[in-house]
Write a structure and sequence with these properties.
It is built from four helices and nine strands; from the N terminus they run E-H-E-E-H-E-E-H-E-E-H-E-E. It has 179 residues and is α+β, with helices and mostly antiparallel strands. The strands form two sheets. Strands 5, 6, 7, 8 and 9 form a five-stranded antiparallel beta sheet that branches. Strand 2 and strand 3 form a beta hairpin. The relative contact order is 0.19. The model has no long low-confidence stretch (mean pLDDT 87).
Length: 179
C-alpha cells in the first residue's frame, strides 16, 4: 500500500453450501446494501458439501452486526464467525511479474529470497514470483520490486482460520496392555 495505513476491517469466515449461485447471492447482498468488500476468497472445505468464504469487510462502510444479520437471512449460509486479528491466522498470495533484465535479475532474485518467495517463471526480460504471507508482507515486497517495473500483479485476497488452542491438556494414564 505504499506506506499508507491499512484500512480497518473485520474478517468474516462464512460457511456456506457448496452450490452454484451462492457466491452471487452473497456478493449481491453486499452490492444491494452498499457494503464495501475489502477482500473475498472462496474455496471448498474439507467436506465438499460446503465452501468457506473469507470476507474482509471495511469497518467504516457499515456496522458488523448489520452485515451478520443480513448474511444470516440467506438460506445457503450455515455459519458465520468473526475472526479478530489477534485470534486468527491470515494469509494471502500474490503473483507478480517483474521486469528483470540479465543485469538486474540477481537483485530481484535476492529480494525474492529475503521474502521467502518463489520464482515460478522466467523469461528473457522478466520473472514471475509468488509471495505468500500476511498482507503487509505482500505490500512490502511489491513496494521493493516496483522500481524494477511491475508488469502484472494479482493477489488472491485474504484467507483466514481461527488460531488453534495451545492450552496444555492433562494426559490421563492408560492401562499397559503388556501386563
Amino acid at each position: 500500500m505504499n506506506g499508507a495505513e491499512q484500512p480497518l476491517h473485520h474478517i468474516l469466515s462464512v460457511l456456506v453450501e457448496n452450490k452454484p449461485g451462492v457466491l452471487s447471492r452473497v456478493a449481491g447482498l453486499f452490492a444491494r446494501r452498499g457494503y464495501n468488500i475489502f477482500s473475498l476468497a472462496v474455496s471448498p472445505t474439507e467436506d465438499d458439501r460446503f465452501s468457506r468464504m473469507t470476507i474482509a469487510v471495511d469497518v467504516e462502510s457499515v456496522p458488523l452486526d448489520q452485515i451478520v444479520k443480513q448474511l444470516n437471512k440467506l438460506i445457503p449460509v450455515i455459519k458465520i464467525t468473526e475472526l479478530a486479528a489477534q485470534d486468527a491466522v491470515e494469509c494471502e498470495m500474490m503473483l507478480v511479474t517483474v521486469k528483470a533484465t540479465a543485469e538486474l535479475r540477481s537483485h530481484v532474485t535476492e529480494l525474492t529470497a529475503i521474502f521467502d518467495a518463489k520464482i515460478v517463471d522466467v523469461g528473457y526480460e522478466s520473472m514471475t514470483i509468488t509471495v505468500t504471507g500476511d498482507p503487509a508482507k505482500l505490500d512490502a515486497f511489491s513496494d521493493l520490486v516496483r522500481p524494477f517495473g511491475i508488469v502484472e500483479l494479482q493477489r488472491t485476497g485474504r484467507v483466514a482460520l481461527p488460531k488453534l488452542d495451545r492450552r496444555r491438556v492433562k494426559l490421563r494414564a492408560v492401562r499397559d496392555v503388556r501386563t
